[in-house]
Amino acid sequence: MGKFALLRQSEATAPAAPPNDVLFWGSLFQGLDRGGSFLQLQIRRMIVTAIEDGRLPLGVRMPSSRDLAALLKVSRNTIVIAYEQLVDQNFLVSRERSGYFVAGLPKQIGEAKLPATEAYSRRWTERFALQPSTFRNIVKPLDWQTYPYPFIFGQFDPSLFPTNDWRESARAALSVPEINNWARDMIDGDDPALIEQLQRQVLPRRGIRARADEIMITIGAQHALYLIAKLFVRPTTTIGMEDPGYPDARNIFGMMTSDVVPLRVDDDGLVPDDDFARCSLAYVTASHQCPTTAAMSRARRDEILRAARDRDIVLIEDDYESELIPEGDALPPLMSLDQDQTVLYVGSLSKALAPGLRLGYVVAPAPVVRELRALRRLMLRHPPLNNQRVAALFIGLGHYRSHLQQVGRVLLERAKLVDELLPQTLPACRWARGSGSTSYWISCPDGTDSAKLSEAARAEGVVIEPGDVFSMSPDATRHCFRLGFSSIRTDRIAAGMAKLGEVFARQG
User: Each residue of 94-115: b (16+ CB within 10 Å) or e?
Assistant: First the structure.
């Protein structure tokens, strides 16, 4: 039966148009951003969603293009193009002199009904080998961009994203020859173009030289840490973790061994003491210790490498934030100083661009990368090649270098502003920010509960990160919090700091 015959058959049971037309169509397109871009795409998506979930059943007559354009306050041509695209995709049918009608969807086999009972939940809980949802993690509001003063680390300021340059790279990646390159299955391989750009433009900035078989792309740096831990950590392995340190790394290691050793840090970073000496592996953030931001001194770097060599300790270097702010003398990462192949280096493109891109990489000896590739294949084969190719073009066209220069200038300006404001707004606190870091580690007077401070600040539109989650013993850093400035606009910093100071004064 053809579409038109199917439509005529349905008219006996389906209304020509929903009741209360204006109210119905107004609610259907309630989320339309009339001041935004890609209005035609928004309208198409909303119609498809309404058809998929049954709000627009088979045979319903759509408003005329003129009426819908008037209702939505968009051009008539926008509606016409949207309707025509939906006809081509078989979501709508067009009848001469009658308008557009919903073509409908195949009948669903049935609706799944999941019991929402406590017994049902317990049944699954009892089967879990572990419950990652119970781990202590950094918590940031998903809608942080709606807050006027988001002092959070690791997110981005949309005004600093290189939109036009990224679009140029994305358009270039959509040419037919490029599609033929990235649309294939690389099994456990990566885009050779991105590997080449890392070799030529990214890693040399950090003093690292690596062959192609010593580099592997990951879906963010955290994916790299998980793969390394899975490859090296047995249930009896002793692994050292900076304390305070990165909670997700601690959680990853803790899933695989019960012997996670807290390692002391000071103003020079990780301390290579007796606890360090008894580890098989050790996680280290040398460029900016997470979360204290301490930059490991050159002398301490040499000391760490000597101790790792003498004790046969594998170092996992997370260089998560290394080149955003051109401030002070840049210190070489451990990998660039390593003469004994003791360092596994984890880097990220996401921190410099946007976290949602999820592009990281590992640099390690070729035998290690070979096994990491085989392990990654079992999880996801390889990260999406289209994203890899866009990133490769972005770097190769010179956009990456110019983006770092622009972002660096803005972030340095913000850091200087926060430096000036902290003594005025939080005079009772101590703070630290390692050279080049995009966050501050704030130590409040003993007895301060940074979680309660964070909750009160958020009610005033200020978002900060409580410090208790960073330590293996929450009480050790309960009086601390992290204050980032990469995601807040420069013109909002002063007002946000003033608000934070007022909240802190009330809490005290």
Answer: beeeebbbbbbeeeeeeeeeee
